[in-house]
Amino acid sequence: MVAVPEFLTSDRFVLELVDGHPTVTLRDAHVSSSEGWSFLNRLTVLVIDGPGEEGFLLARHVDTGGDPAPAGWDSAIERTGVVAVHASGTQLAARVLG
Questions:
Q1: Does some domain include residue 61?
Q2: What is the DSSP letter of 77?
Q3: Which letter does DSSP use for residue 83 in this model?
Q4: Does 1 fall in a domain?
Q5: Helix, strand or coil for residue 33?
Q6: Helix, strand, or coil (residue 92)
Q7: Quick one: CA torsion of 38, 47, 17, 27, rounded to 10 degrees?
Q8: pTM listed for this prediction
Q9: Fewest 10 Å CB contacts: which of 28, 48, 54, 92?
Q10: Amino acid 52: pLDDT
Q11: Beta partners for residue 40, in sequence order
Q12: Does residue 66 fall inside a structural domain?
């Protein structure tokens, strides 16, 4: 059986740049470990993939037609190669995949 990431609606996540570093805050999303996470950044979707069957799928373009990512998001991801993710009190670093 293939694991399917949990889809989070736009009201359950925030994308921001904190001191120039891409940061994702997930609301009402729980993770069991802070190790072994990766991040895929695409124009229409973001994937936060964790260990085992954990993971999250975020729509890059939301119902309002806008992009929730702030200006400079894509270049910050390319520059840093890592995204900070905050989920229910846990902070993790997700390695950016090509």
A1: yes
A2: H
A3: E
A4: no
A5: coil
A6: strand
A7: -110
A8: 0.91
A9: 28
A10: 87
A11: 47
A12: yes
Q: Half-sphere exposure of 71 toward its Cβ, with a 13 Å CA cutoff?
A: 0
CA distance 75 to 22: 9
Does any domain span residue 72?
yes
Please, are residues 85 and 48 in contact by the beta-carbon 8 Å criterion? yes
> For residues 85 and 62, is the Cβ–Cβ distance under 8 A?
no
Question: Structurally, how many domains does the chain consist of?
Answer: 1
pLDDT by residue (tens digit) across 47-86? Answer: 999 998 899 999 988 666 788 999 999 999 999 999 999 9
Half-sphere exposure of 70 (CA within 13 A, CB side): 14
The SS3 assignment for 55 reads strand
Tokens (6 digits) for 66? 């806008």
Amino acid at 88: S
Q: How far is residue 58's CA from residue 73's CA, in Å, rounded to a whole number?
A: 15
- Residue 28 lies in domain: 6-96
